[in-house]
Amino acid sequence: MNQNPSARRRPVVALTGASGYIGNNLLQKLTKHADVIALSRNIENKQDTEHITWRACDLYSLADAEKALEGADFAVYLVHSMLPSAKLTQGSFEDMDVILADNFAQAANKQGLKQIVYLSGIIPKSRRLSRHLRSRLQVENILRAYGTPVTTIRAGLIVGPKGSSFPILAKLVKRLPVMLLPKWTRKKTHPIALPDVLYALDHSIGNVNLSGKAIDVGGPQTMTYKEMMRQTAQAMGKERRLIDVPFLTVNLSRLWVSLTTNTPKEMVYPLIESLVHPMTTHPENMSEEISYGKIPFKEAARYSLQEEEKQGQQKTLPSMKLQPPSIQHDVRSVQRIPLPDGKKADWVALYYIEWLSKMVHPLLQVREKDQGQYQILFPITHQPVLEFTYSPERSTVDRTLFYITGGVFEDAKKNERGRLEFRQIPNQQECIVAIHDYMPSLPWFIYKYTQAKAHLWVMHQFKKHLQTINTTTSHQPIIV
Fold it and tell me: So which domain of life are we looking at (predicted)?
């Protein structure tokens, strides 16, 4: 971290994902010269120390994000959403990432942060990026959208004992004496050791020379994935036969990798899809201060494998059994819809209610009970199925929020944070519609295959309807 020696107090850094793979390692470095607000969704068994304050934070909530960043000078953003965040998660990780980044950027602006440091991936010079890389670039743009200076550290494959990419590669090498290598394994990449990434992140915080820039970082070697497999096998002391083949498409490879390594497809698929691109650094995006990692790949791989082995041995030692956390039957459903030209999130929220009243008729009715309170009800009994209440204090033209406040389909005892929001993506004519922390009253199996499916169908129909509005508007004659 680039710290002014004349500063009278230690800077305060908010660190997302502080209990995760990179966050936990960065936390140890930061506490040497900064006070850290360590953010995590679950802070059970976490204790504050002289320079660490733990805060529970669900970044899907804008209110939580605002409270989490209170008192911070800088923030480090280490967030992605490739794994499900609720018992039932409907929607793509790209749309989840939009919500997380937008909440964080708005909160950073409100709390007056001086800088956000964001760890992203190397962005190839290609017009058609993979889903994962396209999402990483969109997150970067959203973090910049509210005025807080952003320093983006773009890294390729990070070689460390945990994380995602390297452990997957190591499992392949460990479990397969013979590997058939498809074409993508001959693509060039620029791996970097975890300590070199931590150095880049640490020295970017408060560094005015890097503020507002996107910086590529890489280790001392560029190599193919095939060469990384060979060197990983050498670090393990194993002989592996690597055979190049012209088949095995990316789609087939991602399934094969997921099954072989026993890694969730939600994580594997986006990563493997990105391997069609050469993941090498670009000279024009390099900085003499932080870009050039010094640890060779094989050295980093050997250290990572040794650490994994130590951690595996520690897990086998006798320990007190902890009670498993209670399973929440909660729902997060996120869809992206187009916004008609010139329209904002506040317009589409009210238009959705109007459209829904026609869509569900005559099976259901939609009515405004009180100002800002809407009910979906059975027409015969007039019993509300769901009730939504508008929150004016948490809404703007770009974001409209309704709390789920009643109805026979809602578990009133557990549904304290259930909400429906319409959020415009910054600088785009698109909107995210999301249900968060909804606790249904129906038995879970019945809900999953009835009400949940019905919601997806309704949102699909609404998206198609809005697309027809855009098409109709674009073909209207201009009257002079």
Answer: Bacteria
Residue 264 corresponds to which tokens in the numbers above?
Answer: 């969730």
> Using CA atoms in the order 442, 443, 448, 452, what is the torsion angle rounded to 10 degrees?
0
Distance between CA atoms of residues 155 and 160, nearest Å: 13
pTM as predicted: 0.89
- pLDDT, position 260: 77
CA atoms of 424 and 224, how far apart (whole Å): 40
Sign of CA dihedral 191, 192, 197, 200: negative
For residue 181, the surrounding DSSP H or E stretch is: strand 178-181
CA within 13 Å, CB half, 2:
15
Joined together, the tokens standing for residue 247 give 């088949």
CA distance 54 to 47: 7
CA–CA gap between residue 332 and residue 312 (Å, rounded): 33
Q: For the chain, what is the largest distance between any 2 Cα atoms, rounded to a whole number of angstroms?
A: 82
Q: Give the β-pairing of 419-424 and 241-244.
A: unpaired
Where b means 16+ CB within 10 Å and e means fewer, 308-334 reads beeeeeeeeeeeeeeeeeeeebbbbbb
CA dist., res. 238 & res. 242, Å (int): 12
254 has pLDDT over 80: no
Q: Quick one: CA dihedral 7, 10, 14, 15, positive or negative?
A: positive
The H or E element that residue 13 is part of is: strand 12-15
